[in-house]
Amino acid sequence: MNEIRIPVITHEEATGDLKEAYEYARNSLYLRAMGKVNGTEGALNYRAVFSLRPEYVRWISDTADVLFGPGRISPTIKDMIAVVVSSANRCNHCTAGHAHLLHMRGVEDATLKSLMTNLHGLDLESKTVELLRFAQKMTHAAHEITDDDVGNLRTAGWSDEQILEAVMVAAFFSMNNRVMETLGVKPLNGADWYQQLTAGESLG
Question: Does residue 203 surpass a pLDDT of 50?
């Protein structure tokens, strides 16, 4: 795996509690989804950034499964939130992985680029755009969120349960982005694809 700024123990090297934690992560819903981008082994090795604390490996797996499991918001919109937030935080690892998942679901290149750069150019349902703008504002300046911002989401058609879910997904990625960037985790198998996308090449 790519160079990380602290020692890591990969799942191939793990023993004892850490090995059990990796096996626990291997069976998680979220890791199976990300395995479609990086392969199961690649996605599992992403967990190595937490390997000095096996309980963190379990915790991140449980948290991601709750947030990306069945809920009030579709998986596609959750991944769009992930891309918007991760791009705002300049986390290439998370942006590339979740943009690639959206690409695999048939989301067009132009939409992916807009998610990363300019939400005003999004050709999506206005309700969805309103939620993504909220997630972006929350990422840049959560202290500036107002009652009106939340009210606009309700007016657009989002329920309070959906608003809470969106806030939790956005907050999770702001946390995860900071871990990945601080410790030097780079995109894995999605790296070449991501570079083509951000360079403006059509991916076909």
Answer: no
